[in-house]
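agent> Task received from the user: take the single chain below, predict its 3D structure, and emit structure tokens. No templates, no multimer pairing.
agent> Plan: (1) validate residues, (2) run structure prediction, (3) serialize to tokens, (4) report one or two observations.
agent> Step 1 OK, no nonstandard residues flagged.
tool_call: predict_structure(input=
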Amino acid sequence: HTARPLYARDFTEPLFSTGSCVIIMSAYLGEKKSFCQSLGLDEATVAWARFNSTFPVKNRPVILGSIGSMSLRNIESTLPRMIKAVAKILDTRKNEKGLIHCVSYKIGQAIVDGLKGTPHENRLIYPLKADDREAAFIRHRESKEPTVLLSPSMMEGFDFANDAARWQIVAKIPYPSLSDEQIRERLNRDQMWYNLETVKSVVQMTGRIVRSETDTGTTYILDSDIESLLSKCRNAFPPWWMDAVVTPSKNRA
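)
tool_result: status=success, residues=253
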């Protein structure tokens, strides 16, 4: 068994006592109140700065496809529509490399099975365990073909700059797994923490493919649960991220 603390705040004193000023930087830190609480910081003593993105909005559209809910209750009925939407995107992006965030191996396998017999079957690169991700990424990046990397765990730490991916699909909103006892307990204590962790993951995912001011890439979020997340946590998303969102009504127009 592994003992894991619920909060980092019980262990941060050595970090914050090393100097008179500590600077913490990230593309996304969440909301000030939640961040300070998690680290045991007094909000009144913390200066909080947010900056706009220097990447042009037109280079990084986030299209809300809203195919249907991919929650545990609805996933079986939504999966057929999801796979059809994925195939349609692959049809329109048949000459470009892409990335599909499937979030779980169950969804990943359903996409693989759903694309069998289609022109896109051989485009897929699907690492079946975490240890295979790096090799799969290198194979995808170096391939001369318009390969598509399908993975449940490339939300952060991978750089799909330029032609390594001109588009990506978010098949499911990455809510933290409730099979994890630690996450269940944190959720019981703080629903907002759970939502903010999801927002952070969404922002990280959508940042995989546009890596500079001149890079371009389109993100398709197909899970309609993004709408309820936006309804509950709109202010938690960075303004520069919201600027790039294309809603279903705008998309139809």
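agent> Step 4: summary for the user.
Residues 206 and 220 are 9 Å apart (CA to CA).
agent> Done.
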